[in-house]
Amino acid sequence: MNTLLKIENVSKSFTLHNLDRHIKACQNIGMEVKEGEFIGITGKSGSGKSSILKTIYRSYLPGEGSIYYNSKRFGFINLFEATERQMIYLRKYEIGYVSQFLNAMPRTTAREIVENSVLEMGRKKDEAKAMAERMLDHFELDRELWDSYPVNFSGGEKLRLNIASAMIKEPRLLLLDEPTASLDLASKERVRLLIETLKKNGTTMVGIFHDIEFMEGLCDREYNMEKGVIVA
């Protein structure tokens, strides 16, 4: 298998000026992810897990280190040196991110959020509509909510919608930041089914989970973090 992602000596820290404190989020992180692998990252809250995903997605710029991604369009590219235009392209077509929180444009319905994800990939309107409806059905989002604004959804409904809009694209690399955090058991099983399908179809994934049982049988390798450092 070819290498899709290579993280080399990545460190990220934050300065809290109002408290005059310097916090090290993660230190000297290194890992290599092959195409089609599912890598799990575990650890207590505050151990630095999310900082790793956000540096890969470049929501955060690191203090030091490099992250190389084997892009279908750009070849091996250091994500920390990529242009803003390149990152916009990668987030649109190659790298997906599922967080615990829904970040959607105002006055966009649930159906439109998922449809727009398909349209971004160049699919036709009719195809996007059909794919979105199948995905919303899969997560058992009440049909009466499909044409409503998510601002009034419960936390679990927003999370299911967030997962649906990211997974429907079947990106080359999918980053999962606690995707089952506020879901009931049935919804977790639906997420698991989609993850298994994406993996069979070749999507590479890096995921953060507190639910160790959920990860069993899914992950190819697991990294455990403590105080910003990989310990196992």
From TrEMBL:
Pfam families: ABC_tran
Top-rank taxon, per record: Bacteria
Entry's Gene Ontology molecular function annotations: ATP binding; ATP hydrolysis activity
InterPro entries: AAA+_ATPase (IPR003593), ABC_transporter-like_ATP-bd (IPR003439), P-loop_NTPase (IPR027417)
Keywords, ordered alphabetically: ATP-binding, Nucleotide-binding
Span of domain ABC transporter: 5-231
Biological process per Gene Ontology, one example term: organic phosphonate catabolic process
Keyword Zinc: no
Cited SMART domains: AAA
The name this protein goes by in its record: Alpha-D-ribose 1-methylphosphonate 5-triphosphate synthase subunit PhnL
